[in-house]
Amino acid sequence: MSKVAITVNGTLHTKEVEDRTLLVQFLRDHLGLTGTHVGCDTTQCGACTVIVDGKAVKSCTILAASIEGASVSTVEGLADGEKLHDVQAAFHEHHGLQCGFCTPGMIMASVNMIERHDGVLDEATVRHELEGNLCRCTGYHNIIKAVLSAAEKHRTAHAVAAE
Amino acid sequence: MGSPLHKSTSGHGTAVLEKPEPAGLSPEMELVRDALFRHVGKPLPRKEDGRLITGKGRFSDDFSLPGQTFAAMVRSPYPHARILGIDTSEALASPGVLAVLTGADLLADGLEPIPHNPVPSTKFDVKLTAAGGGIPFTGPHYLLPVDKARHVGEAVAVVIAETAAQAADAAEKVFVDYEELPHVTETAKAALPGAPAVWDEVPNNVFIDSSFGDEAGTAAAFAAADHVVTAEFHIGRVTAVPIEPRSSLGHFDDETGRYTLYAGSGGAVRQKGELAKVLGIEPKNLRVLSYDVGGNFGARNRVYVEFGLVLWASKKIGRPVKYTATRSEAFLTDYQGRDLITKVELALDREGKFLAMRADNLSNVGGRCVSLSPLSKGSGLITGSYHIPVATLRARAVFTNTMCTQAYRSSGRPEVTYAIERLVEKAARELGFDKLELRRKNLVSPDMMPYTNAVGSIYDSGEYEKNMDRALELADWGGFEVRREEAAGRGKLLGRGFANYVESSIGSPKERAEIEIKQDGTVEVVIGTQPSGQGHETSFAQVVADMIQVPVEKVWIILGDTDIVSVGGGSHSGRSMRHAGTVMAMASADLLKEGRRRAAEHFGADFDAIDFESGHFKLRGTNQTIDIFTLGDLTREKDGPLRVARDNEMHTPVFPNGAAICEVEVDPETGHVLITSYATVDDVGRCINPLIVHGQTHGGIAQGVGQAMWELCAVDASSGQPLAGSFMDYGMPRSDNMPSFKCEIAEVISPTNPLGIKAGGEGGTTPALATVVNAVLDSLKDYGVTDIDMPVTPHAVWRAIHQSKGERDARAS
To answer: At what angle do helices B628-639 and B576-603 cross, to 10 degrees?
Structure first.
């Protein structure tokens, strides 16, 4: 057992957990944050994607203890009260989700992608960078539209800020 | 010998049929229909998104109960083995273990097999029987077997422990004494004499053997034909891969004597009825909750053994039991899809007119029969979009030592569409016809509708040639040569593939809607369908809101809890909008009628003096009005809540149809296939929410493309071991190997139901297998490649090129 202290969505949580506890289990079972999902057992589906210290990572493949002291963002922490994050809003507007199971991971991967590229994205790049997130419902078409739309918003907002 | 289906006449597809007319509509029905049609077709964003994009979805594994325990399955490593005994002692002594249960325990407690009722039985389903016409033996499905394991991965025992990890550890300590038996996993081999028998009751494994159509007429037509073209295809085994793995949480309440099951499925009402029979309890003592479901595609439409096991175990140990499958278990034991061997023959005259068709279809159901949907639904559509006056079909189903198959996205139709579209292209190539013109001249035309095909299916409506023309336009078929040359300049081979399709939507015939005007100013609608991404909370709210003319924000759809939903067919076969839409229209009409009655009483006037408009009842000729919510409030004490319930039953199938075209760029060095464009036209009947329908088409296309390009539940025949156990082995459509789509909806109103709806959920998949493979073959035609099996992986393409080259070199030398 280890005592693990991780900040999740801005709140510090300290829990005593088995050493083999994966980050996704820490989030779902120990913190009750069930928005992050488990879709596979070979680190390939991306449903578990969260952001750890600014990096999009698959939480099914990290031990919670190994990121002791880190800061984690999950889908539950994206919206600002009632105000949705641009990426969430874009997924809704462009029908980028159907069953919703891959969606949290897809959204977190997209949030991180837009930040890393500062919103400068095209279809080919978005498709390439979402290769690690599987969706079985949408055929990806509307997901790509949603991400490009949110990226555009990001560019506009930053261009305005730059002026 | 062959027997005609229903009243299909022999010889020519002109059965005596009454065009189904909606029975004379009541004034209220007219009103709701007109109101709906004024607003229908809006691409409204979805109401259910709110919780799903903020991480507040309610998927089955998200639920936990105090004191819950965890189950792990002990699974057979052999494809076929007798169970001589199970030693649970070491497992029982393992830390945290509360129980280890086997098939023997199950029988001792009197549990029954799952009543899958796999033989299709709606009025319009093809009638499948055992050889000679008898009732088929389908293989009982006990939650745990006592006699044998019949496929790799079959659960033979279950361990319950305090934690999932403890249960998994203990499962490895259960000692099962297996006697390995000869196995057969291959579809064709299992039907040959001498194959090992999966069930003693069916020594030759072929438990369905039925023939249809006009044998004499077909034989005569073939004998007189100028041309005969034959082909054989194996449409292989794939699996649904919903991104949410199966999960179930069972609980027994001692005080109330009731069981509760949280388990995402394709329809909680059906699950409740079947599980009650398994447990030997009254259905009212089981509550099933299916809230958010992370994908279904057919695989969730049948009861899984673990649903019964967690319920049974929870009563035995007095604590809730949860089981969530790993993805590896999902690959091994999700109900799988397809696996059909089809031998087809087409007879043509000199001008290329289709005269007759023969098909021999063999469906691999796995270790036991859970469903005959693929074989049955495919059987009714072997002639596809074409007028083929006579046909015969032999439909067989065979047991093998593989996981059970079940309906999967467009159940049975992609298989037979693949067969007819590839056969037609083969005919065009061998006989020197243009592949589009050959199709065009044989299409079923609008003036033939309703059209009874040679195996008895009655296509309700459709404009097939118009779909073709529009698809060719959308795909810029005419501009292909320019693109082909450009690709050739880069060393790539460009090919284009075309496929027509017509598919069927039948579905469970019964549905029920309850509508109540609530005191809080909302409208509550209870319905028995089960969405897993199709957006019912939005599209159904849209339908009711439009019909009773209130804002859609005020309408809330309740589903998934059998304590609230008493009757419902679930969601499958594209049934939902058609069945739910119709019964909601009827319930809305009933609601408005009752509202008018109350309004008349309220105004002290005659019933006939009341009009309804924009959510208000008005006394004609005055300015007295009352909105429906206020009316409900005022009359609640005297008349009870303003609430109606309506049941409806519809048996007539509908036939969505369309065309799909794709272009592929093949690298002849590596065999890599890239889809550069994909265009479709889909006639869904009346389209309620185009945003949602397009989404369904996109996802459907991806699943069809996936099977054509990458997906296969490969099994090593000699060992009987499944080889695709994870995403490392099972290729998937991904964001970087799929194109964006050009999809258009065609609305040819169906005369079969008051709202004119067909279905939009499966048309994307139906032609996709044929479209992609036809495109790949087109790209390779200069190499002399005329056939290739799915999936068209780089290796398959490379091999086809080199094999063909080798054959030509051999002929030349």
So the answer is: 70
User: pLDDT tens-digit profile of B107-116?
Assistant: 999 999 999 9
**A with B: how many residue pairs have Cβ under 8 Å apart?**
177
Give which of B421, B398, B411, B386 is closest to B335, Cα–Cα: B411
Confidence band, pLDDT 50/70/90 cuts, at residue B393: very high
What is the complex's ipTM, to 2 decimals?
A: 0.98
Amino acid in position B366? G
CATH 3.30.470.20 holds for B336-506+653-812? no
Which residues on A lie below 8 Å from B560 (Cβ)? none
CATH (domain of A36): 3.10.20.30
In the CATH hierarchy, which top-level class contains the domain B509-649? alpha beta
Tell me which of A125, A137, A144 to substitute to probe the interface with B (most B C-beta atoms closer than 10 Å): A137
Of A77, A101, A130, which residue is a domain's last? A77
Domain ranges of chain B: 60-181+245-293+300-333, 336-506+653-812, 509-649
Distances (CA, A) of B93 to B86, B115, B167, B298, B313: 15, 35, 12, 40, 18
Substitution target in A87, A136, A143 with the highest count of B β-carbons within 10 Å is: A136
The CA distance from B56 to B36, in Å, is: 32
Q: What one-character DSSP code corresponds to residue B534? A: S
The residues facing B757 across adjacent strands are: B685
Kindly report which listed range (A27-36, A95-104, B37-46) carries the lowest average pLDDT score.
Answer: B37-46
Domain CATH for A138? 1.10.150.120
Assess whether A97 and A71 both reside in one domain.
no
Residue A99 to residue B54, Cβ atoms within 8 A: no
| CB nearest B241 (choices: A136, A140, A142) | A136
- Residues of A within 8 A of B736 (CB-CB) are 127-128, 130-131
Among A19, A44, A77, the domain-final residue is: A77
Dihedral angle computed from the Cα positions of residues B252, B255, B257 and B259, in that order, rounded to the nearest 10 degrees: -30
**Are A100 and B691 in contact (CB < 8 Å)?**
no
Structural domain boundaries, residue A58: 2-77
Q: Based on the fold, state whether residues A69 and A109 are members of the same structural domain.
A: no
Only one residue has tokens 């795909």, namely B475
Domain co-membership, A98 together with A73: no
- pLDDT, one tens digit per residue, over B21-52 is 445 678 878 877 788 776 667 777 788 899 99
Set of chain B residues whose Cβ sits within 8 Å of the Cβ of A84: 53-54
Instruction: Decide if B741 and A133 are in contact by the 8 Å CB cutoff.
Output: no
Nearest chain A CA: its distance from B249 CA (Å): 15
Q: What is the dihedral of CA B3, B9, B13, B18, to 10 degrees?
A: -120
Number of compact structural domains in chain A? 2
Is it true that domain B60-181+245-293+300-333 has CATH number 3.40.630.30? no
- The C-alpha atoms of residue B497 and residue B53 are separated, in whole angstroms, by 37
Integer Cα distance of B759 and B792 in angstroms: 29
Regarding whether A91 and A56 lie in a shared domain, the answer is no
CA distances from B448 to B451, B462, B651, B682, B732 (A): 5, 10, 22, 20, 40
